[in-house]
Amino acid sequence: MSPLRVVVAGGGVAAMEAILALRELAGERVELTMLAPESTFAYRPMAVAVPFARGRVQRLPLAEFARETSTRLVRGSLTAVAPGHAISSDRPPLPFDALLVAVGAWSEPAVRGATTWTPDLDQEVMGGLLADIEEGYVKRVAFVVPDGAGWPLPAYELALMTAWDARDMGQDDLEVEVRTPEAAPLAMFGEEASASLREDLDEAGVTVRTGHHDSVGTPGTRVIALPRAAARRIAGLPRDEHGFVPVDRHGRVEGLSAVWAAGDCTAFPIKQGGIAAQQADAAAASIAGWAGAAVAPVPFSPVLRGVLLTGRGRRWIRRSLETAADHGETSRRALWWPPTKVAGRHLSPYLAMHAHGRLPGDERPAGRFVEFPVPVGGPS
């Protein structure tokens, strides 16, 4: 039988995780093509720490990734989906037997009168703020999580690191607050994580205003707001009321045959790299099974994993969203390995190998994603 022609549209976390998973699960049963508008993958979860000299952005040429995964790389942006063809304004239509849409989402400003923070603008926005704090020009700063942000954790990281850096500068009178529509800080991670975060915030002197839905900045306060996630409009794909793509738990796009979607472009409300990777794994398993591989497709069962940079270390947080009784867990030590901020079962080991030449820590299983504590029966 000829291999199944699989086109993966996108060049981010979900697309790369899906390609790695498909190559492992389906092998030569699939012929992979990546349709991506960019030439370089920028791994940005640590961008939030760059202005504070606590992190860097890891970059990887997509041509190198394509070569290592035996994937054909095509430059272009997906603009429409037709039966059996992925359409790009940059090139002729790409024929497919299976299409995985992993194009991500846009970021749009959500708070009038505020400076919008994104990983791309991190050094510009935060570098300027920190310089003004050091010179004494700014005495009040608020970090705002708007409705529709999709992932609130960076606001807390920015607030904590700013508060601690201000102290190190000798600016002890700086007022730092977080404004959020959440009922409690990082409520999505459960009661335990929220309580632990409260301790970190109190120690740093950061106040939190929960239940905040105001979309206008405050005069006299430097306001830094997270962006709102906005859908990319692709002709031929169904959309929910916000423009995102509805999928089932295996990533299959509602109402279409041979089309899957994963990551921030889908209607799942949390927009985070680890969630995108889990969606990509579910979709890859479904496609691999369709290609004839001996794979039992496992539905998307979201587990939130986050690494919070507190300004005085890191806090690891994990919670299953499938069980209402799961109140989350938090630790000062890694809860998974490799200890990356975006936990992808295939992508995390791959990026760790590229960053270090090997996985750090010889006692860890090389090239594998491992949950801690290791469950009975071995690594997951």
Give a description of the structure.
- The chain has 380 residues and is α/β, with parallel strands linked by helices.
- The protein has three domains: 4-106 and 229-290, FAD/NAD(P)-binding domain, CATH 3.50.50.60; 107-228, FAD/NAD(P)-binding domain (3-Layer(bba) Sandwich); 303-371, no CATH class.
- 24% of the residues lie in helices and 25% in strands.
- It has seven helices and 22 strands.
- The strands form seven sheets. A five-stranded parallel sheet has the order 5-2-1-9-17. The chain has a five-stranded parallel sheet with strand order 11-15-12-13-14.
- The radius of gyration is 21 Å and the shape is globular.
- Mean pLDDT is 91; it is low at 374-380.
